[in-house]
Write a structure and sequence with these properties.
It is an enzyme of class 4 (lyase). By secondary structure, the protein is of the alpha/beta class. Helices cover 37% and strands 14% of the residues. The protein folds into two domains: 98 residues, Enolase-like, domain 1 (2-Layer Sandwich); 251 residues, TIM Barrel. Strand 1 and strand 2 form a beta hairpin. The longest helix is centred in the N-terminal third of the chain and has 22 residues.
């Protein structure tokens, strides 16, 4: 029986938090936590959890995950969830390495040969979406996602709605319907603004519209589903557990859920995907994150048939010196980038043990730093807070 000997965190550019778990017999696994604007809180939560896990049997992943999420009386919330998820991913990486098996083999085995991916093209800033989309098509992608609007007021400024429609129209003029385009509302669009915005966007046939409202406004989803009419509705990147997803699924308003493996954890993501299958709801995992998060998310995509497409962050504009941080990109910390490199817009199945990637430990240790992302300071013209 191998026991947990140490749990360490590494904060590296552009905004990633890697978690390394080492067992007393020398195996090492990697996970990834997120919420970079609360990075110190996340690292502190991991340190607290680590103190309680010293000497614990590393193979008892479900028991550990349950205790991390439920064992401190005050529970839930994204900071605690992502801290637990980073540790849990690393434990799966260790379990797979020990058995000489990829994690998806523990979860039922393969259901597909490859996983379709999509890429980001900005949408608010940068807003040169046609040229950016052209580059993505040249890279092999047939699906992209962009932010639909900048900050939008409660009733919606008509010029911003018209600008959003113009961007979508420019993409359709340039590429017709051969390019799937998803729209991320990022919680920016208030209820009264949704109707005029979606009325304009429906003609361009978005692949989906996501996170129209913030997670606490679940009651908006049914209205959104009516307003979206023929547009599939997606949400879920900020939800942390099956229980939160069940409430959303029970509304009957959602067509696609978007759990993030670095919030839910790997096994919880798999459970959420299986639950969504009962509701005939597709899964498009959220992952504008680093390489470990993507590798963990793909393990679930390989074994769950209702995962329809995978987000990935290569070339994401946030990586190009975001908030003054040094530039870094998705593949920079990998010894071999092949497992996370798309060919013709898809990820091939990866049968390597654990999460299927090998991190460059020297690069991670050399580049770690106490970076801090500032809070977004978006405001409306009257000075009130605007959703980022």
């Amino acid at each position: 029986m191998a026991r947990i000997a140490s749990i360490e965190t590494f904060r590296v550019p552009p905004r990633w938090i890697f978690v390394r778990v080492t067992t007393d017999d020398g195996l090492t696994g990697w996970g990834e936590s997120i919420i970079p604007k609360r990075a110190r809180a996340v690292v502190g939560a991991i340190e607290d959890m680590a103190a309680n896990l010293a000497g614990v049997d590393a193979s008892r992943i479900e028991d550990i995950a349950q205790r991390l999420r439920r064992g401190a009386f005050f529970r839930h919330g994204p900071v605690l969830a992502t801290a637990a998820a980073g540790i849990e991913q690393a434990l799966w990486d260790i379990k797979g390495q020990r058995a000489g098996m990829p994690v998806h083999e523990f979860l039922g085995g393969l259901v597909r040969k490859h996983v379709r991916a999509y890429a980001w093209i900005g949408g608010d800033s940068p807003n040169d979406v046609v040229e950016h989309a052209r580059k993505r098509i040249e890279e092999g992608f047939s699906a992209v996602k962009m932010n639909a609007t900048p900050a939008l007021g409660h009733v919606g400024e008509r010029d911003l709605i018209d600008a959003a429609a113009a961007r979508m129209g420019a993409l359709r003029d340039a590429f017709g319907n051969k390019l799937d385009i998803a729209l991320d509302l990022h919680g920016r669009v208030h209820r009264a603004a949704l109707k005029p915005l979606l009325a304009e966007l429906e003609q361009f046939h978005p692949m989906w519209v996501e996170e129209s409202s913030t997670p606490e406004n679940e009651e908006t989803l049914k209205m959104l589903a009516r307003a979206a009419r023929s547009i599939p509705v997606a949400t879920g990147e900020r939800l942390v557990s099956r229980w939160e997803f069940k409430r959303v699924l029970d509304t009957g308003a959602i067509d696609i859920i978007q759990p993030d493996v670095s919030i839910t954890g790997l096994f919880e993501l798999e459970k959420i995907a299986r639950m969504a299958e009962v509701y005939d709801v597709a899964v498009a995992p959220h992952c504008p994150n680093g390489p470990v998060s993507l590798a963990a998310s793909l393990q679930v995509a390989f074994c769950c048939p209702n995962v329809v497409i995978q987000e990935q962050s290569l070339g994401l504009h946030y990586h190009a010196g975001f908030a003054g941080l040094p530039k870094a990109d998705l593949l920079d910390y990998l010894k071999d980038p092949t497992p996370l490199t798309t060919v013709d817009g898809v990820f091939a199945v990866n049968d390597a043990p654990g999460l299927g990637i090998t991190l460059d430990t020297d690069a991670i240790e050399a580049k770690q730093q106490d970076w801090r992302l500032p809070d977004a300071d978006w405001t409306h013209p009257d000075g009130t807070y605007a959703e980022w």
